[in-house]
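Recap quiz, item 2
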Amino acid sequence: MSKHHITTTINGDEVDFLCETSQTLLDVLRDELRLTGTKEGCATGDCGACSVTLDGVLVCSCLVLGVEAGGKKIETIEGMADGDKLHPLQRKFVEHVALQCGICTPGLLVAARSLLAKNPDPTEEEVRFGLAGNLCRCTGYQNVVEAVLDAAAEMRGA
Amino acid sequence: MRYEAPTSVEAAIELLASGKGNARALAGGTDVLVQMQLDVIEPELLVDIKNIAELRQIEKLDDGYHFGAAVTGVELMDHEDFCSTWPGVMDGVKLIGSLQVRGRATVAGNVCNASPAADSVPALIAAGAIATIAGPNGRRDIPVEDIGIGPGNTSLVTGEILVSFFLAKARPNSGGAYLRFTPRTEMDIAVVGVGIDLTLDDDGICTHARVALGAVAEKALLVEEAAATLIGTRVDEPALDNLAAAASAACRPIDDKRGTKEYRIEVAGVLARRAATTALNRAKSAGKK
Ligand code: FES
Ligand code: FES
């Protein structure tokens, strides 16, 4: 059966790809487009490692089909830094040592950016609930939460 | 596997009916894609219903709220008036998966996936939600409690889809709440869930109540005996004791890794009390508005 020809916008660039019906957006990003910053932890929507935004909405890319992405605007971790200049969230993750193995980190960063876009001044509890869909087996979350709160303060100019 | 994205309900029904059981409707995909990933289902045709305009609307009409089967959890969460009108329904919706999952997942999918532990289902049943089902033989309206019939099974026949939900305009002095018990606060599956809606008269006497239980039977249960313990009372301590007993008595749960039978029966009573108390407080503050 012939593949679907899909046109989307990824991190601001128009992108074309071919995919099978059964390929998820995560499969397409990683295997077809070689955007391997987005990680696969579970492929069943449980871990958040594959988080991207789709028309501005935070989603698990493992729960979206490639064919469903036609005409949509997708933002991945690759679009977060401005060239060599890290996004404040990325910088604060490094400063606070908010990662160990790093597999959860792209998803956490994308989710944290989405959280701060909606709520620039979250409480610690709001950060914890906002990132509850992102599992991390290494850090125990404390440094992640601190990094997000610190980045939020910096981004508000506080 | 074929993929189709029709733009009308009629076209979707035709595709699904032609699939003879090997076609699946795809809304948020947060259950369908997982079941495909785990090889639980291997559909030959996916019918994406998200491009059907009628299924994407949230509308407040004179008779109440209507929302389409492809409306996501996040879209409802971002709808301020819906959230303040139906806080009990939203208690359930906000517990579906993670924020990422709710970015795609629909309430209709939560209902049609027919997990006995689905969080939005007891909340919808308590609120008296009616679903419009469309199929090869036209449309019919049924209460949400008549959709799930057992784990993974619904009363919908091949070719039928859930089109929209209707929540009749709430009576004055009404309030609802849904509570669940889980070992973790987020990203977990209900061990027990309880949804309660109630209405008070001007003297604070309960005139109407609906009580629904999740995760304690093969499907979410509407428990009229439990509702009856509240009607005619001030939802005071003795009434809450009776409610807890009636809720526990209605449970016919299984033992599994999340909880034993005895535990679920006990917790159903405890949660029913707490949900009724929250619903009561919401009904009182709705009356003050
Ligand atoms: S890989 Fe998508 S949620 Fe885990
Ligand atoms: S840093 Fe290893 S899973 Fe989060």
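Chain A has a mean pLDDT of 97.
The beta strands of chain A are 4-10, 13-19, 51-54, 57-60, 73-75.
End of item.
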